Amino acid sequence: MTTRNIQDYVTVLIADQLFGIPVLEVHDVLRGLRLTKIPLAPAEVAGVLNLRGRIVTAIDVRERLGLPQRKDKENGMSIVVEHQGEPYSLMIDDVGEVLSLDLNELLPTPVTLNSCWKEVSGGVYRLENKLLVVMQIEQLLNFADNSTIAA
C-alpha cells in the first residue's frame, strides 16, 4: 500500500495550457494591474507595480516563453511569487481552482511536450480531460542568459 503524498496547486491558464503552481509559492492573486513601464527593460519585463508598498517586477509569461501575445490584454490576471527574495508578478491568462494532487501520480515531462513548456516543467499530471504541467518558478525566473526560454 502506497502512502498518499498530497501537494496543493493553484491552477493557471497560459495560452490554453493548464499549469499548476504549488500553493505555498503563491503570495497573491491579482487582477487589473496598473503597471509602470521600465525603459530599456527586457521584453518579458512588462513593468513594475506597487503592492502594499513593495515594488514588484511584472513578468509577461507569454513573452518569456516565446508565445504570441494575448489579444485581450485588459482581462489578464497575475500570480505573485517570490524568487531569490524578490517578489514577481507573473502575468497569466486566467486563474483556476486549487487542486490537491498525489505526488506519487506526478509523471516525468513527456518528450513530446511543446518546447516552450518543457523548460519550466517539473512534471505533469494527467487529469480527466487535460494535462497539468507543474511550473518550476525558479526555471521560469532564471534570467541568467537574459533571453526567452523557448529561443
From TrEMBL:
Gene3D superfamilies: CheA-289, Domain 4 (2.40.50.180), SH3 Domains (2.30.30.40). PROSITE patterns: CHEW. Residues 6-146 form the CheW-like domain. InterPro entries: CheW, CheW-like_dom_sf, CheW-lke_dom. Pfam families: CheW. PANTHER family: CHEMOTAXIS PROTEIN CHEW, CHEMOTAXIS SENSOR HISTIDINE KINASE-RELATED. This is Chemotaxis protein CheW. It comes from Sneathiella sedimenti. The lineage of its organism: Bacteria, Pseudomonadati, Pseudomonadota, Alphaproteobacteria, Sneathiellales.
